[in-house]
Structures are given as structure tokens and as C-alpha cells.
Design a protein that fits this description.
By secondary structure, this protein is α/β, with parallel strands linked by helices. The protein has six helices and five strands, in the order E-H-E-H-E-H-E-H-E-H-H. 41% of the residues lie in helices and 18% in strands. Helix 2 packs antiparallel against helix 6.
């Protein structure tokens, strides 16, 4: 049976930590669908289209990975792509409580949904999109935090220019 894992998130922007989780998920599943959430309530720095483009650039050399944008419930998206597995990344104990609640919520909405928690390599454990956004705000160094293709597109985007 072809096992599809759904990796949802805002990916504002995708980081080396996210990329590491994608690679780990590929070792466990036949296909990984990276689902970029609209998340307008979070007021992302990059548009949905920009974030989808960045993820596509980051995963361009990976087989069995595709990207979709979405603005509905994660469990609805999972059902539409025939996935019963959600991938979530855990960096630290501080992530665990929120991710556990989210996993239980998704399972309550669809009892067929299982959440698999993956940890990035230790060298990526401190990376978060919010840290990257803060560094970008102050023109800080981000090359070690982002896939090279994403770094290049961010610095060339008009939406990333500083005031």
C-alpha cells in the first residue's frame, strides 16, 4: 500500500530544520506532501504563493515529495490526498505540549489520522521560522539556517527589503 504522509505548516520561510524533517519522513513513507498553510491569522511575512515557491525550490532535488498550498482544516486536506499520517517536527520540550494537543485535536476530528513526531538533527534543533524572520528584519546572517535556493530567492524578493 502506498503510504502518503502530510507535513503541514506555515513554512514562513522553510528552514533547514523543516528540510531535515522532510528527508527523515521520506525514509518512513512512500510520499511526502508538504502542505503550506495560508495561516493569515499568523500574519506571515511571505505570501502563500511565495512560501509555496520557496518550498518547491528547497525540495526540487527530492523524489517523492510534492507541495500544496491550503486554507482548510488539515484533516480535510489529508483526506483529499488519501493520507492518514501527519508529520510534525519537535525541536524541544517546549514544542511538545502544543504539538500533542494538536495531534489529539486532529485525531478527534478524524479517528483515522495518526500524527508522527520527528526530531531534526541536533544542529537544526534551534532553528525556527520566527528566528529567521527576526534575522531578516535586521539584515542578519541566515545562510546557515536556510536551504541555499531559499536564501537566494528571499534576498532577491522585493517583499524582503528593509525599510
Amino acid at each position: 500500500m502506498h503510504k502518503i504522509a502530510l507535513y503541514p505548516g506555515t513554512f514562513d520561510p522553510i528552514t533547514n530544520g523543516h528540510f531535515d524533517i522532510i528527508e527523515r519522513a521520506l525514509r518512513l513513507f512512500d510520499e511526502v506532501v508538504v502542505a503550506v498553510a495560508d495561516s493569515s491569522d499568523k500574519r506571515p511575512r511571505f505570501t502563500l504563493d511565495e512560501r509555496v515557491q520557496m518550498v518547491e525550490l528547497a525540495i526540487k532535488d527530492l523524489d517523492r515529495v510534492r507541495v500544496v498550498g491550503f486554507d482548510n482544516l488539515t484533516v480535510e486536506l489529508a483526506k483529499s490526498i488519501n493520507s492518514t499520517v501527519l508529520i510534525r517536527g519537535l525541536r524541544a520540550v517546549s514544542d511538545f505540549e502544543f504539538e500533542l494537543q494538536l495531534g489529539y485535536l486532529n485525531n478527534s476530528l478524524d479517528p483515522e489520522i495518526e500524527t508522527v513526531y520527528l526530531m531534526p538533527k541536533l544542529k537544526h534543533a534551534f532553528i525556527s521560522s520566527s528566528i529567521v524572520r527576526n534575522l531578516l528584519k535586521f539584515n542578519g546572517k541566515t545562510e546557515h539556517l536556510l536551504p541555499a535556493s531559499v536564501q537566494n530567492v528571499i534576498w532577491s524578493m522585493k517583499s524582503c527589503t528593509l525599510p
